[in-house]
Amino acid sequence: MAEALKTFFDEGAVRRIAAMLRTAWSAFPERRFVAEASEGLGSLELMDRARHIKSALHRALPTDFEHAANILVGSLGPGLEQTEGHGMSVFLYLPHVLYVAEHGLGHFEPAMRLQYELTQRFTAEFSIRPYLERYPRETLARLRQWARDPSVHVRRLVSEGTRPRLPWAPRLRAYQRDPAPVLELLELLKDDPESYVQRSVANNLNDIGKDHPDLLVATCERWSRDAPAARGWIIRHALRSAVKRGDRRALALLGFEGSATLDVTATFKPKRVSIGQSVQVTLHVANRSSKRQKAMVDLVVHFIKARGTPRPKVFKGGAVELAPGAVTTLQKTVSLADLTTRQHYPGTHRVEALVNGLAASVGAFTVTLASREG
Questions:
Q1: Could you tell me which of 112, 173, 213, 286 has the fewest CB atoms within 10 Å of its CB?
Q2: Residue 282: CB partners within 8 Å, gap ≥ 6?
Q3: Does domain 263-368 bear CATH number 2.60.40.10?
């Protein structure tokens, strides 16, 4: 996908941007912009291409930001009618977003107007963050207004742009320390009718919970009272990382409370695996008691690190509800392929089952160095 996105920013994309700007501003230096924005583009990666086009855009537009912002707004195509299925076409506006993030910071009102329009065609979740840092009071006030906007894309910006740990973006450290202003916005969106916004609200809460687990559970407990179905989904999705951490309060809120009386064993196929291969772990869950049992069962693999010490990683299993004497299985394929984010090392990898947050050993598999034969 990254490769496809990178190649999207070619001379053709530059010419489309130029034609749109020429329509909005007859004095736009189209030929110079196309030449400067296209020069050396092929040797750059995705974000560097977007930044390169943004810099050419800045040189081509008027130095007065308000004038430039009005031109950009006038050049934009129609807003998005759907929330999914746009492919790469919306990335045409990535240089615009980078432009307002860098050059609009001294011009709050025209910059906010431009972002309001951009987010209805792409997203302003990245460009809004510098404004939250420089103008926290003013930006939060504007986002409170936008939380009631008719556009689903604008409402989603309110929740997505304020995520303290938004992927691929610098963290909002102030809101990691004190997420109260963000929670005030999420309160306005917790019953939004659109799943596009609901998913973003849940992701924001999940982010908050990584720094403030007590606050996450307390918020979800409060929201769960008389919660409609959509808000219930938000709560479950927001608690997913807490559940993976085995947070007993989060599990209890979801109805998985106490130590379920379940026998869990495991089989490994194969039990001895080389780096680069994978092992299938099957958990066999049995209810040996005389009462119906409900539990969340997850899998913990203690991966061996470079210094030979183990580090646990939780893999989602699933919810089980078993009548007396009933048995079920849960399967997970654990990859031992090296990634840029995770390297694998030989040794015995212990495996545990998490049953309602309580860990129980279920065995181990052995990882060996990959064969160099052939």
A1: 173
A2: 266, 267, 268, 269, 329, 330, 331
A3: yes
Query: Can you say whether the dihedral through the CA atoms of 225, 219, 236, 127 is positive or negative?
Result: positive
The residue among 105, 93, 2, 20 whose CA lies nearest residue 53 is 93
pLDDT digits (tens, 9 = 90+) for 334-363: 999 998 888 999 999 999 999 988 899 999
Structure-token pair, residue 347: 């040794």
Residue 372 has pLDDT above 70, yes or no: no
Q: Across the strands, what pairs with 351?
A: 301, 363
Sign of the torsion angle spanned by Cα atoms 127, 132, 135, 137:
positive
Q: Where in the chain is the domain with CATH 1.25.40.290?
A: 2-253
The third-level CATH classification (topology) of the domain covering 2-253 is: 1.25.40
Strand segments, DSSP code E, in the chain are: 263-269, 272-274, 278-286, 293-304, 310-322, 327-335, 347-355, 358-368
Using alpha carbons, list the distances in angstroms from residue 373 to 366, 369, 370.
20, 12, 9
CB 299 within 8 A of CB 354: yes
Distance separating alpha carbons of residues 345 and 329, to the nearest angstrom? 28
- Alpha helix (H) residue ranges in 39-135: 46-60, 65-75, 94-103, 108-118, 128-134
How far does CA 336 lie from the centroid of its chain?
24
pLDDT per position as a tens digit, 135-170: 999 999 999 999 999 999 999 999 999 999 999 999
- Closest residue by Cα to residue 125 from 107, 151, 98, 105: 98
Alpha carbon 29 to chain centroid distance? 38
Residue 119 tokens, joined = 């987010």
Distance CA 303, CA 311 (A): 5
pTM: 0.85
Task: Residue 224: name the closest of 214, 215, 234 by CA.
Answer: 234
**Is the Cβ–Cβ distance between 155 and 197 less than 8 Å?**
yes
Domain limits, CATH 2.60.40.10, in the chain = 263-368
CA–CA dist 144, 67 (Å, integer):
27
Q: What is the dihedral of CA 175, 101, 168, 76, to 10 degrees?
A: 120
